[in-house]
Amino acid sequence: MHPQIDALFDEAENRYLKPEELAVLSQYVESLPARLDAYCSLRDREITIMQQAADRLVAELPGESTETLERSVKNALLVLRHCATAMLMNDEAFLKDRLQPMAQMIQAYDSQRIDSALFRLLSQSLSHHLAPQQVKFLLPMLAIAQSDLHLSGEAPLTAAALF
């Protein structure tokens, strides 16, 4: 659950929520149907989105080994799933926690160049297969992933960069 909402309930253990606390809760609850829609659309189109990005990656980096490219695609798929879950929960800490080992793997395999290219291609594929509102919910988590994985050879993700 969203850490701020979790904290609201902890703080209000012996009292009713204050109006400003209810506003935070209400805002999250009101956004939940759209978040669910974005999550389900991403889940249902994941293969198409990733395949498009992977095909373009192979075309851009023909000299890279299949094994190296496959490892990067598998990692990107996992990052995308973590981003989707974090977006659904609206929980950046959840995402950051799961990205830490991935950042170490990128460093260990020295795949930052490949992963940066794949992340750019994945972002483009997302903008082609998801509605702008769906990408809007996912964008903050993608930006966190881009930053935490040190895939900043590209400009930071923004809505303008995706559309």
TrEMBL record:
Claim: GTP-binding is one of the keywords in the record: no
GO biological process, one term: photosynthesis
UniProt entry keywords in alphabetical sequence: Bile pigment, Chromophore
Entry coiled-coil feature ranges: none
Family under the similarity heading: Belongs to the phycobiliprotein family.
InterPro entries assigned: Globin-like_sf (IPR009050), Phycobilisome_asu/bsu (IPR012128), Phycobilisome_asu/bsu_sf (IPR038719)
Keyword Transferase: no
Secretion signal, residue range per the UniProt entry: none
Name of this chain's protein: Phycobilisome protein
Any one cellular-component term (Gene Ontology): phycobilisome
